[in-house]
Amino acid sequence: MHNKIKIERAILNITQDELAQKIGVSRQTINSIEANRYVPSTVLALKLSKLFKKPVNDFFELSEDD
């Protein structure tokens, strides 16, 4: 899975820590998601969708090996 969380975070001009606080996770979780080391739960993806005001598919997409 690929994601554009870092780009969406930059659009909002917020740090990893600020994003983490807004959705109730650690900064390390945000870092792991951005680095494609962690696939977020459905609940976490929906929280990001609400915060970014965009559908989940706008910032997460499947890769060829998914």
Automatic annotation (TrEMBL):
Domain of life: Bacteria
GO MF annotations in UniProt: DNA binding
Keyword DNA-binding: yes
Gene3D superfamilies attached to this UniProt entry: lambda repressor-like DNA-binding domains
Native source species: Yeosuana aromativorans
PANTHER family from the UniProt entry: HTH-TYPE TRANSCRIPTIONAL REGULATOR XRE, TRACRIPTIONAL REGULATORY PROTEIN-RELATED-RELATED
Pfam families: HTH_3 (PF01381)
Protein name as catalogued: Transcriptional regulator
Keywords: DNA-binding
Location of the HTH cro/C1-type domain: 5-59
